[in-house]
């Protein structure tokens, strides 16, 4: 399902740490995102989007699959006042083939390999790939931990 959804509907990240612009496609096992690399990005050095930026872009792309469980009901209605915290618990078989430049728009795709759902947390493993057009930039497996937190807003 091609949808073009703003990633901010799924993740708590905001500038300057937001490394994804749009979700192009998402379901329970797959996500595809795009990201335009701008000159003022914190992971740009000498007009090159560095390795840490590619990894963060990949992690945020993967998080969209897991986090959507907390932000949206099965029927698509949005849950209000939901907060999540997440982090990378492991990177496996990381290969960075090339680094994009400012002005490039990268596409990142992730497939769910495995998932464990607890009461208020989810652990998952995703197989990932970042591309610039048809050129592979990054390949890896990433383990994520996402936990629902209590909202302190009253």
Automatic annotation (TrEMBL):
Which InterPro entries does the record match to this protein? ApeP-like_dehydratase (IPR016776), HotDog_dom_sf (IPR029069)
Q: Which domain of life is it from?
A: Bacteria
Specify one Pfam family: ApeP-like
User: In its UniProt entry, what is this protein called?
Assistant: ABC transporter permease
What species is this protein from?
Flavobacterium pectinovorum
